[in-house]
Amino acid sequence: MRGFTLIEILIYSALTSIIIGGSLVVVYQIIESSNGIYDKIVIEQEANFLLQKIKWALIGATTINVPPVGATSSTLSVNKANFSDNPIIIDLNSNNLRLKNGLNEQNILNSQNIAVDNVIFEHQAANGNLPEAVKINLIVNSRLFNTTIYLRK
């Protein structure tokens, strides 16, 4: 008689189960990895957008109202040259970074997909050849992003 014995069927079934199970684990890991990468990209893009908005506020700034020189604050207030809606105020409220121009309403800068955990603005005095600067520490979804923007006058 030709055919498979019970032992052969059990061995082939076990091998097939191992191969299919292993394939499912690999596919699951790939999907989870791509979701993690997507989340990191979204966070980095959002943080970059927020830093660019802060940079926009500081380009052409003539006066930094808050924080004072040598101090830190979670609020940044500046006056820009040739800008009718002074002061520009950027602050943190309930995990949202907000921008206010003059008497206009405050606008939330970040999307709902992220939480701004903290922002620290440090007003640095001019030192030697280095002009006055603002150091920014921005924490978005528990990740730190920082930069220093030098003011040109």
Task: Describe it.
- The mean pLDDT is about 95.
- Strands 1-3-4-5-6 form a 5-stranded antiparallel β-sheet, with helices on one face. It has a 4-stranded antiparallel β-sheet with strand order 2-7-8-9, covered by helices on one side.
- With about 150 residues, it is an alpha+beta fold.
- The chain contains 1 helix and 9 strands, in the order αβββββββββ.
- The longest helix is centred in the first third of the chain and has 53 residues.
- About 35% of the residues lie in helices and about 35% in strands.
- The chain has one domain.
- The chain is rod-shaped.
Molecular shape: rod-shaped
Number of strands: 9
CA gyration radius, whole angstroms: 27 Å
N- to C-terminal distance: 97 Å
The chain-level mean pLDDT equals 94
Strand adjacency order, main sheet: 1-3-4-5-6
Structural class: alpha+beta
* Helix proportion range: 25-40%
- How much strand content do the residues show? 25-35%
Helix-strand topology string = HEEEEEEEEE
Query: Low-confidence runs (pLDDT<50, min 5 residues)?
Result: none
> How many independent structural domains?
1
How many H/I helices? 1
| Biggest sheet layout | 5 strands, antiparallel
Write the layout of secondary structure elements.
Layout: H1 6-58, E1 61-66, E2 72-73, E3 75-80, E4 88-93, E5 96-101, E6 107-108, E7 116-124, E8 133-140, E9 143-150
Antiparallel strand pairs: 1-3, 2-7, 3-4, 4-5, 5-6, 7-8, 8-9
Short description:
The chain crosses the membrane at residues 9-31. This protein has 153 residues and is α+β, with helices and mostly antiparallel strands.
